[in-house]
Amino acid sequence: MPEATSPDAAGPGAAGTASGHALVVRDLFAGYRGVAVVRELSLEVRPGEVVALLGANGAGKTTTLETIAGLHRPITGTVELSGETISGRPAHLLARQGLALVPEGRALFPGLTVREHLRLAGGRAAKGLAAKGSAAKGGREEELLEMLPELRKCLGRKAGLLSGGEQQMLALGRALVTRPRLLLVDEMSLGLAPVIVERLVPILRRAAEELGASVLFVEQHVALALEVADRAYVLTHGRIGLEGPAAELRERRELLAASYLGETAA
Q: Could you tell me the pTM of the whole model?
């Protein structure tokens, strides 16, 4: 596997993480009906780190995220969350363990308001804080609205009536209000205007720095993704073809392009 640099090189979000990793995927084969789309995939996300998963359409990025999130059982291989093996564990149990997925299709309920989405998600996450009552839930919601202030004016509006950008903010906000340990985000920029994308993608950095989340995200806007991420992996035909610190990959565009095209980089 070609690498831009040593895999031990740490980005800014990786400081002080020698004690372990938030997410470890080892030798993962994943796909549908026993047919592997992803093969021999290994990756890691350190506590508080932001990692981009890049690659051309059909490379296996969504399959990877959905398998980590428990929507598909791995064919073989292991997935660990904070040192615990979670391979094949269903999505609803992983959500209780602090894993949150923002799917490509947003998966909103058109008839529920923004406030109802946030309180439903935040309420589930705060079950373990029942003694603190509504104050805990309200604190989570207010914290989220400070990060995504555009949602404040939409609180009483149904999700089905929101613009595409507002819907994506809600999908991200619904995940962040749970204060996840591990945040997975799939194609957040899909179908959105560049000005909205430039507003949303940096929120992933804030999620790591302010909420303590570890972040693994898929993004087609490569330049912006590498500005936000600490490290990046590039999938080529279901396998990791390139990995390294985001800052170094930004400087090696020819290597990145070759990986996207499935070519052997020198």
A: 0.85
